[in-house]
Design brief:
The protein is α+β, with helices and mostly antiparallel strands. It has a 7-stranded antiparallel β-sheet with strand order 18-15-17-16-21-24-19, with helices on one face. A 6-stranded antiparallel β-sheet has the order 1-12-11-13-9-8. Helix 6 crosses helix 8 and helix 8 packs antiparallel against helix 9. It is globular, with a radius of gyration of 21 Å. The N terminus is likely disordered. Bound molecules: flavin-adenine dinucleotide. Flavin-adenine dinucleotide binds next to strand 6, helix 3 and strand 13. Flavin-adenine dinucleotide (FAD) binds next to strand 6, helix 3 and strand 13.
Length: 448
């Protein structure tokens, strides 16, 4: 597509349209919304028609992908919920003038589908988080975290161009080469600046990962912090799940292995056993049960991008909070969080099932001007409480109260799509990024 703006002459909408007042729920059934209209466009022209027709498609228009998000980000009562699931084509590989290898993909494509396709071609995106259902459009303009090998650890850093529908219904393109600041700001916009319909993402030759998995116990919060930092220093990327009230740490130490796109036979079936056990633990919100601790397994990380079934409300299922801290804060974060957790346990008997700990490399400020990872070059860590039932009142109380410690006292940055029960001021989104056609009351409260 060479033109920077493409107008479409017809205004007819062809995709699925539901306006019978039904409710739509997120993955964990902890949030639901009753839009006036729910649409699944089948073309970019459909998205344009929806945005332009304020009569048939009431304001605000909120784009969603797989509706996995745990927060109120998907809420749009009385508005138009636009789901991108049918815009999920992988258009193909291409090379740009700078010689970068890229993949062009539609916004509704799920990360698992993209990973499988790239695996077949011998390419990969460095961001290979466990979550396979998240859609490209959501993670191109939203917050993500992953302990990546040789990569920053958040998806949008790999996006080099976006095609989106603006508030007038025009198709627009922004890219790092031509638009600089405007492009980097758009990637911090959570769909408030426009609806992403297509992304261009930088890829690299597929590589293998070697991992050692251990479960270790410590005798103090300080020893736990030292242990986590040592585990991280020993490897190329660390994913840790800390059982804080027991001062234990489940650690997956990742090391670069050679080039390749399939798990070698020498590491099977150990890899598959570990993958299935870890996937189940994540699906069930780490509700107990032991995990294998394989040593020296070599695998393609494509295979570890998982698909999670949509759980029934009676099933244990993952719920979590997200906070970004600078790595220099980890000691204080663990010490204060331990104190808080033990006091809460004494008061109520409740503890989270685990704390996910990711390490992400922040870029220079220009490349990530707002929100998480915008602190300038450095290393961030997250320390995120996890539970196995989003609707458990004590978990909700824990998370609400912990927000004040993590955000106010420890200075953590929360995310409007990954941190629940936020208050105005907890997240600050520049007003200039938000168009009224796309701004729901949930996002309105964070505009500054
Ligand atoms: C079981 C499970 C595991 C998870 N694991 C991880 C993990 O390892 N790492 C991680 O980072 N996250 C993880 N998450 C969180 C998840 O990746 C994010 O919430 C992600 O945004 C979900 O993608 P989605 O397509 O479901 O987005 P949705 O929930 O459908 O949408 C979220 C928001 O994205 C924006 N949006 C969606 N589509 C578009 C578009 N086309 N254009 C513009 N804006 C858009 C809107 O603001 C929307 O409200 C996990 C969640 C679950 C439930």
């Amino acid at each position: 597509m060479n033109t920077r703006t493409q107008e479409v002459m017809h205004e007819f909408y062809h995709g699925l349209l539901i306006n019978d007042g039904r409710r739509f729920r997120n993955w964990g059934s902890s949030r639901s919304t009753q839009p006036a209209v729910y649409v699944e466009p089948v073309s970019y022209a459909d998205v344009q028609a929806v945005v332009r027709d304020t009569g048939q498609f009431p304001t605000p228009v909120r784009p969603v992908g797989s509706m996995l998000s745990v927060t109120e980000t998907i809420l749009n009562d009385g508005g138009t919920l636009l789901c991108t699931r049918k815009l999920d084509a992988i258009i193909g590989l291409e090379t740009d003038e700078q010689g970068r290898q890229l993949v062009r993909v539609q916004a509704g494509c799920r990360l698992k589908k993209l990973n499988l396709w790239l695996q077949q071609q011998g390419w990969e995106i460095p961001f290979q988080a466990e979550i396979g259902e998240a859609t490209v459009g959501s993670v191109a303009v939203g917050d993500t975290k992953e302990s990546s090998l040789d990569g920053p650890g958040y998806f949008s850093s790999h996006v080099t161009a976006v095609l989106y529908i603006d508030e007038n219904g025009s198709l627009r393109i922004l890219s790092d080469r031509q638009d600089g600041d405007a492009f980097y700001e758009f990637k911090c916009s959570f769909g408030l600046s426009g609806i992403v319909v297509e992304c261009v993402i930088e890829v690299r030759r597929a590589s293998l990962c070697r991992a050692n998995v251990t479960l270790q116990a410590f005798d103090s919060p300080q020893a736990l912090t030292d242990g986590v930092l040592k585990l991280r220093e020993e490897c190329d990327a660390l994913l840790a799940v800390v059982v804080l009230h027991q001062l234990a740490c489940f650690a997956e130490q990742r090391y670069r292995a050679d080039a390749g796109n399939v798990t070698p036979g020498s590491s099977q079936p150990a890899c598959e056993q570990y993958r299935i056990a870890k996937r189940l633990a994540i699906q069930h919100g780490f509700d107990g049960g032991s995990l294998p601790q394989p040593q020296g397994i070599v695998f393609s990380r494509h295979d570890f991008v998982n698909e999670y079934w949509r759980p029934a409300e009676t099933e244990h299922r993952l719920d979590f909070q997200y906070y970004e801290h600078d790595i220099g804060m980890l000691e204080q974060v663990i010490a204060e969080s331990y104190r808080f957790t033990k006091a809460f346990e004494q008061k109520t008997g409740f503890t989270p099932t685990g704390w996910a700990t990711y390490f992400v490399h922040r870029p220079e400020r220009k490349l990530k001007p707002y929100g998480i990872y915008s602190g300038g070059a450095g290393i961030s860590c997250s320390f995120d409480p996890i539970y196995c039932n989003p609707n458990e009142p004590l978990w909700q109380q824990f998370a609400r109260e912990y927000n004040r410690l993590a955000i106010d006292t420890l200075g953590g940055n929360p995310s409007p799509i990954q941190t629940q029960w936020l208050q105005p001021g907890d997240v600050r989104i520049p007003r200039k990024l938000a168009r009224s056609r796309f701004t729901t009351p949930y996002y309105q409260q964070f505009l500054v």
